[in-house]
């Protein structure tokens, strides 16, 4: 039942539900109101201070930013930050005979020439999970599955593929691999 202040006198405030029935008396003094309001303000300030200490605040409108320590790009608005792009274990300082990092083969360019390459734009995933595919086709192999709010870089303007009704963008993952994803699942930043 929602109670609404309907009046007051020397003995306290009179409350009633929305219909005006069920009158009840609640005895509050002015000091108690101020104390309640003060508690609310103090709680708000404490939470805001802790939030400010947890992050520098330099995020974009989607809550995403570059991490200056790891170099990764991630978002905070889901409550679960994305995994950093660099490994968490320390790197060995001794050289190895085989390359320590393998690069994925370059994706062929099946997008039309009208879908011009652009200076990469940051984009975050707006669906629960999205597949980045080797080619702009639902039949193409999956390069990586991304979770909601993970961020990538869009490399082309969106374009349509004649064989399906989706609009696609070529994208680059944080580890440098490239692929394609459906545009409707991206929020450009």
Structural features, described:
The chain is mainly beta and 189 residues long. The protein folds into 2 domains: 3-54, no CATH class; 58-83 and 110-189, SH3 type barrels, CATH 2.30.30. It has one helix spanning 30-54, and strands spanning 3-9, 12-17, 24-26, 64-66, 73-75, 117-125, 129-133, 142-147, 151-156, 159-160, 167-172, 178-182, 186-188. The strands form 4 sheets. Strands 6, 9, 10, 11, 12 and 13 form a 6-stranded antiparallel beta sheet that branches. A 3-stranded antiparallel beta sheet has the order 1-2-3, with no helix packed on it. A hairpin with an 8-residue loop joins strand 7 and strand 8. The longest helix has 25 residues, at 30-54. The chain is globular, with a radius of gyration of 27 Å. The chain starts with a strand and ends with a strand. This is SH3b domain-containing protein. InterPro entries: SH3-like_bac-type, YHYH_dom_bact. Residues 120-189 form the SH3b domain.
Strand-helix topology:
Elements: E1 3-9, E2 12-17, E3 24-26, H1 30-54, E4 64-66, E5 73-75, E6 117-125, E7 129-133, E8 142-147, E9 151-156, E10 159-160, E11 167-172, E12 178-182, E13 186-188
Antiparallel strand pairs: 1-2, 2-3, 4-5, 6-9, 6-13, 7-8, 9-11, 10-11, 11-12
């Amino acid at each position: 039942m929602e109670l609404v202040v309907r009046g007051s006198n020397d003995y306290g405030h009179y409350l009633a539900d929305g219909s005006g029935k069920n009158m009840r008396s609640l005895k509050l003094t002015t000091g108690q109101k101020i104390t309640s309001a003060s508690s609310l303000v103090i709680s708000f300030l404490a939470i805001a201070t802790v939030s400010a200490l947890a992050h520098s605040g330099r995020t974009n409108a989607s809550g995403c930013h570059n991490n200056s320590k790891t170099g990764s790009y991630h978002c905070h608005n889901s409550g679960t930050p994305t995994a950093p792009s660099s490994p968490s274990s320390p790197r060995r300082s001794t050289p190895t005979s085989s390359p320590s990092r393998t690069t994925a083969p370059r994706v062929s360019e099946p997008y039309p020439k009208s879908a011009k390459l652009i200076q990469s734009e940051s984009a975050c995933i707006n669906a629960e999970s999205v597949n980045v595919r080797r080619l702009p086709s639902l039949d193409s192999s999956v390069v990586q599955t991304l979770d909601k709010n993970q961020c990538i870089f869009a490399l082309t303007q969106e374009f349509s593929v004649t064989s399906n009704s989706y609009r696609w963008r070529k994208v680059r993952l944080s580890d440098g691999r490239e692929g394609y994803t459906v545009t409707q699942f991206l929020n450009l930043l």
